[in-house]
Amino acid sequence: MVTWCACASGKSIAINKKASILLSISPVLELKETMNRSIWFGLLFVTIGVFWRLNNEHIALRIIVLAYDRPNSLEKCLDALDDVIFNGDTIALNIWIDRKEGNGVNTEVLQMADGFQWQHGPKEVNVHNTRVGLYGQWMNTWQNADIVLYVEDDVDLSPWSYQWLKHASLTFMDNDRVAGISLQDEYLIIASGQGRGAALRRPPGPLFGYPIVGPWGFAPKESIWKDFLQWYKEVSVIPGYKPYTDQADLYTKWYQDMELAGRENTMWTMWFIHYCYIKDLVVLYPNIKFNNKGRVNSSLAVHRAEKGLHFGHRTKQSSQPFMVSDWHDVFVDFGGNLTFVRYNGSY
Predict the structure, then answer these.
(1) Which of 130, 191, 282, 298 is deepest in the core (most CB within 10 A)?
(2) How many structural domains comprise the chain?
(3) Cα(223)–Cα(226) distance, rounded to whole angstroms?
């Protein structure tokens, strides 16, 4: 194999691969011969240590931000992330950008993502090779990690969201029935029965389990998410297979309405709801209001309802009034107790 390199005269010369390797290490060999042996080995071990730390740095959480064509919304989302308190933990940030019709990319979104300074760990900006839609954003961006938190670009996180998520994960993520943890607090409704569509009456306690996934700040359990992705890959190609779930008939009805409108590809959550039903799983939710005197500012994740796939023109003026602004240890005083709420809202 021929490799091209530039010599001191400025001319390019052709050398074979073996020669190029020798040329590249010859200055190192000369340095070794001229330096004291102890200094040489000292530098060698320091260099190895640096490379080891860079490649083995523990990632406490990987945040995957899903973006498309809303630069202002992405800016708000990233600004909120920048205010989250991580207590020195290493947090990886992956920003995934979907392509537009015709395979183009929103340049403002790309510039916003590239220019954002992340101080808490490694950051990557990824653009899909082709348009993948909302399903692809959720299902094609996961990487093997203990904890991954999905955040769509119209969701803002409270500064205390990580504190709560970390405690909840350490306490309950090993529970066999837990499929993941959602930071969502708003718009949790009864999925079936006489109270269908009504606001969920939450049980007492700092958190609870519910078999409906809340996507506004969702951290799936690694083993469950991996199995779900494989399951979806297999069943979604079966002719006539539908994720209809009688126990979650309200969500099934919404999905069927989207099918009639040709928009079922915007409701990936129906598949996860169906999967959780088959596997008898629940998603954990915070119940900050229980220990926050019912205050409005009790949310760890706030959805701004920006104009997009699911909302027309309704947008919150600010997410700040709804966010948890002060921390109290009672928010994570779980005591090992976990209440499961059924599809019909009973517990």
Answers:
(1) 191
(2) 2
(3) 5
Ramachandran assignment for 197, one of left (phi > 0), alpha (psi -120 to 50 degrees), beta (any other): left
Per-residue pLDDT tens over the stretch 181-192:
999 998 899 999
**pLDDT tens per residue, range 135-172:** 999 999 997 777 899 999 999 999 999 999 999 999 99
The kind and range of the H/E element at 252 are helix 249-260
Taking a C-beta distance cutoff of 8 angstroms, is the pair 186, 299 a contact?
A: yes
Order of all β-strands in the sheet with 282-286: 123-127, 91-97, 61-67, 148-152, 218-220, 178-182, 282-286, 207-210, 339-340
Residue 347 within a domain: no
Q: Which residues of 45-71 are buried (b: 16+ CB within 10 A; e: fewer)?
A: eeeeeeeeeeeeeebbbbbbbbbbbbb
Query: What's the distance, CA 246 to chain centroid?
Result: 29
Which amino acid is located at 85 in the chain?
I
Distance CA 245, CA 256 (A): 11
Alpha-carbon distances of 273 from 192, 242, 243, 249, rounded to whole Å: 13, 12, 8, 11
Q: Is 235 domain-assigned?
A: yes
**CA 181 to CA 283: how far, in whole Å?**
6
Q: Is residue 213 part of a domain?
A: yes
Q: Do 93 and 137 share a structural domain? A: yes
Tell me the C-alpha to C-alpha distance, in Å, between residue 159 and each of 156, 172, 234, 302.
9, 22, 39, 12
* Bridge partners for 188 per DSSP: none
